[in-house]
Amino acid sequence: MKKNFKVLLLVVFVAAASGSFTTKSFDNPEKDKLLVELISYVLEKTHFANKEMDDAFSSSVYTKFINDVDPLKRYFLASDIEEFKVYENQIDDQLKNKDLTFFNVVHERLEQRMLEAKDIYKKVLDTPFDFTEDQSIDVDYENIPYASTREELESRWKDQLKFSTISTYYDIKEEQNAVKDLKPGESDEESFEEEAVEEKIAEVKEPKTDAEIEIEARESTRSSLDDYFSFIDDLNRTDYFAIFINAVVEDFDPHTNYLAPQDKDRFDVAMSGKLEGIGARLQKQRESVKVVEVISGGPAWRGEEIEVGDQITRVRQEGETESVSIGGMRLDDAVGLIKGPKGTKVTLTIKKMDGTFKDVTIVRDVVELDETYAKSTIINKDGRKYGLIDLPRFYFDMTDYKARNAASDVKEEVIRLKEEGMEGLVLDLRNNGGGSLKTAIDIAGLFIEKGPVVQVASGDGQVEVLNDRNGDVEWDGPLVILVNEISASASEILAAAMQDYERGVVIGSKQTYGKGTVQNVIDLNRWMRNNQHGDLGALKVTTQKFYRINGGSTQLEGVKSDVIVPDRYSYFDLGERDYNNPLPYDKIAPADYQTWDGYIDLEKTIQESKKRIAASEQLKLIDEQARWIKERRDNNVVPLNYEKYIADIENNRKRSEQYDSITEYENNLGFRSHIKEQELKKLDSILSEKRSRWHKNLSHDIYVEEAVNVLEDLKLNNIKREKLANIKD
After folding, report:
1. Is 547 helix (H, G, I), strand (E, B) or coil?
2. What percentage of the chain has pLDDT greater than the value 90?
3. pLDDT tens, 516-543?
4. Pairing of strands 425-428, 451-458
5. Angle between helices 602-615 and 702-713 (to 10 degrees)
6. Which of 261, 388, 521, 660 has the highest CB neighbour count under 10 A?
7. How many other C-beta atoms are found inside a 10 Å radius of the C-beta of residue 463?
8. DSSP-derived secondary structure for 279-291
C-alpha cells in the first residue's frame, strides 16, 4: 500500500525508464527534433488518455500555438494566417517525422512582425490621443478578426495604446484632484506614500493641463512598451519552441505540460514549499494574468485586497514611476516582474471581478507556512458549542509522512474541540486546492469506520480502490463540509467520500473545481542513455484519474453541494471547465461500501437548509451582485471617450456601493480559541492578532452561519440516539 501512495503523489519523479526505449537510437543532432520524438514517445506510453495524433489534434495545436504567440492579434495579418493554414492538418504528420516546418514558418514570421510592430507603436505614440472622440474598443481579442492590412493593424495598435493611455490619464487626473485639499502632514495612503505629500502639494499649486497630462500618460505607455519589447528581445528560439511543445502536450489535457530546464528548476523550488513573492498562484490570460489562488499566510492574503478571479494588468516596481503592462507577455516574464526579494515593494494594477481597476501595493515576503496548517475555533450559539476546522491544504512532509501532516493535525484539532464539549463539526475546505492524497484518506477515516475512500484508474483500465484501514472513528457526531469553486483535488475526494457515505452535509457552490486527475513529473533525461544534447527538461503528465466510491468521476463536474449557497463566483466557469481540452467526466463501477447509519433523515435536514437559503435576503443580495459581476465581465466594449470612460467608472462605483452591506453582515455567532491555543496566544502576540482577524472574518460569514444551522438541525432532530450517547460520552 505504501508503494501505491507514492505513485499517487502529485509530484513523482519516475526512475529509469523501460529498456525498450533507452536502447532506441537517437542519432539526430538537432535537439529540438530529439525533444519532439522523445516527448511524443513518453506521451504515448504514459498519458492516461493515450490520445491519437490525428487531423483534429493537428488543428487544435495549430490554433493554440498561434494564439499563444499572438494573443492580442496585434502581430499577424490575415494573409499570414492564410499562409499558415496549409499546415493546419499537417502538424501531426510533421511531428511523427520530426519535421518542424510549421514551427519554423510561424516563428520566423513572428520575428518579422514584431520588428515591424516596434515601428508601429513608436509612430502611434508620437501623436497625441484625442479623448473627446466618440470611440470605443472591443477587448474580446479572441473573437475579433486578424487585421487585413498594415493600415488596419496600425489602427488596432492605436486603439490598444489609447486604451492603455486613457487608464493612466484617468489615474493622473484623479491623483491631482485628490491632493488639492491636502495639507502638509496629511496623506491619502491609497494614492501615494506619506513622504511624498509635500512634493505632491507643491505640484498642484500649478496643476497640469489636460494636454500635459495626456503627454505624461502617453509617455508612460511608451515606457511600458519599451520595457515589453526589451523582454521580447531577450527571448530566443528555444523559448518559442517551448511554447510550441506546450501547445502540443496541452492538447492531451490542461495539466500535461513541458517543463523546460529552467521551468523545471522553478517547479522544484515551488514544490519545496519555499514561496517568495506576493503569495498567489497565477494563470495566463490573453491581456492579463489571472489570480487563481491566494496562498494562505502570504503577503496578498495578509493584505486582503487581492482575490481569486482578479486580473493583474500592470506592474510597477518600488522606486519606479512607470508601470509596465503585462498584456501579451509570457506568464514566466510577467511572474518575473511580480515576484521579487523579501521586503521589496511591488504595485499591481488589478482589474476586479466587477470590472473596476485598483492599484495594490504589496511588500513581498516568504509565505508563512504555519498559516497553511489546520486551525480550529469554538463557535457559541444559544448556549451550545460547535467546532470549525479550517484546512487550507492537504500538506505533508515529502521526506517523512509521520512528521507533521494535515491528517494528524486535523485529528488533534478534533480531540481538542471534543474536550471543550463540541456538539457538531464544520470542516472548512473552501479555497483548498488539494495536496496529499494519503492525508485526505486519513482524514476521511476520522469520520467513518473502515472502508473505501476513493478509486484510482490507470490508462490501461485497471482500477485500484484506496481504503481507510483504521477502524477507529474520532468523530461520529453531526458533520458539515464547506466547499466552493476553488476546492479541488484532495478536497473533492474528501467531500465526495463524506457525501457518498451520507456522513455529512456538503454546503457551498454549485460544484467544486473539478480536477479529478493525477500528474507525474517525468525527468526526460532519465529516458536517454549517453545524452549529448544537455538538459532536456521534464514532462508533467496526467497518468491516472480519480473516481468516487459511487463510481462517478470528480473530473470536470467536481462535487455538487447538497445545499447550494450563492456566492460572487456563481455565474463564472471557474476551475477545470475553464480550461481547454479537459479530460471528460465518466463513470466506473462503484466500490463496495455501506452508507453511515447515524442520521434518521438526512434529506429532511437538507431541505430545511434549502428553505433558509431561499428566504435569506443577504443571500439574495449576494446572488444579485454575482449576476451584476458576470454582466460586467461579459461587457468587452470599453469607451475611449474620456467623459464616457469616467461615467462608466462612476456608474460601476455606485452600483458596487449597493453591495457594501454584504461585507457588513453579522451572523451573531461567538468565536473563540480552544484552551490550548488561548495559552499560546498569551505568549505570541502575532498569533493572537491572526486569530482575532480570523474570528472577525468568521463573524461576517453567512456560509458558516448556515453550516451551524445544519449542525443544529442534525443534533436536535436527526441524529440517532446511540450516536447522541456517544457524543455525550
Report:
1. strand
2. 55
3. 999 888 888 887 766 666 778 889 999 9
4. unpaired
5. 150
6. 388
7. 15
8. -EEEEE-SSSEEE
CB 69 within 8 A of CB 568: no
**Cβ proximity of 463 and 410 under 8 Å:** no
**Separation in Å, CA 296 to CA 102, 280, 391, 430:** 43, 9, 10, 12
- C-alpha to C-alpha distance for 363 and 318, rounded to whole angstroms: 10
Query: In angstroms, rounded to a whole number, what is the distance separating the alpha carbons of residues 23 and 538?
Result: 20
Nearest to 480 by CA among 444, 427, 558, 440: 427
Residue 607's Cβ-side half-sphere holds a number of Cα atoms within 13 Å equal to 5
Alpha-carbon distance 416 to 553, whole Å? 35
Q: How many CB atoms lie within 10 A of CB 449?
A: 14
Q: CA 427, CA 186: separation in Å to the nearest integer?
A: 45
Tell me the pairing of strands 451-458 and 365-366: unpaired
- CA separation for the pair 204, 194 (Å, rounded): 16
Place of cell 456563481: 570
pLDDT digits (tens, 9 = 90+) for 317-330: 887 877 777 766 66
DSSP state of 560: B
CA 602 to centroid of chain Cα atoms:
34
CA angle 594, 499, 702 (to 5 degrees): 150
Comparing CA positions, the residue from 459, 473, 369, 365 lying closest to residue 415 is 473
Q: Going by DSSP bridges, is the β-strand pair 538-547/517-523 parallel, antiparallel, or unpaired?
A: antiparallel
Distance in angstroms (rounded) separating the CA atoms of residues 715 and 713 = 5
First to last CA, the chain: 34
Which of these, 672, 552, 548, 566, lies nearest to 616 by C-alpha position? 566
pTM for this model (two decimals): 0.80
- Residue predicted with more confidence, 185 or 79: 79
Q: How many residues does the chain have?
A: 729
Q: What is the pLDDT of residues 227-283, one digit of tens each?
A: 888 878 888 888 899 999 999 999 999 999 998 776 554 544 443 334 557 888 787
Contact (CB, 8 A) for 129 and 162: yes
Q: What is the mean pLDDT of residues 102-106?
A: 96
Looking at residues 368-376, what average pLDDT do you find?
Answer: 78
Give me the amino acid identity at 549: I
Dist. CA 406–CA 146, nearest whole Å:
51
**Which residue bears the cell 526505449?**
21
pLDDT tens, position by position, 634-672 = 889 999 999 999 999 999 989 989 999 998 999 999 999
- Residue 268's Cβ-count burial label (10 Å; 0-12, 13-18, 19+) is middle
Q: Could you tell me which of 184, 198, 123, 112 has the C-alpha nearest to residue 154?
A: 123
Count of alpha carbons within 13 angstroms of residue 475, beta-carbon side: 32
User: Residue 222: how many CA atoms within 13 Å on its side-chain side?
Assistant: 16
Burial of 384 (0-12, 13-18, 19+ CB in 10 A): middle
Nearest to 283 by CA among 39, 513, 437: 513
607-614 long-range contacts (CB < 8 A, ≥24 apart) are: 608/713, 609/505, 609/507, 609/562, 609/563, 609/706, 609/709, 609/710, 609/713, 610/563, 612/706, 612/709, 613/563, 613/564, 613/565, 613/706
Count CB atoms within 10 A of the CB of residue 428: 27
Cell 509570457 belongs to 330
- For residue 723, the Cα-to-chain-centroid distance in whole angstroms is 40
Look at residue 683 in the predicted model and tell me its pLDDT: 85
CB burial of residue 340 (10 Å; 0-12, 13-18, 19+): middle
At 24, the pLDDT band (50, 70, 90 cuts) reads very low
The C-alpha cell that represents 176 in the structure block: 491631482
- Angle at Cα 28 formed by Cα 24 and Cα 31, nearest 5°? 105
What does the pLDDT read at residue 208? 87
With contact defined as beta carbons under 8 Å apart, do 483 and 495 qualify? yes
Element (H, E) at 698: helix 685-699
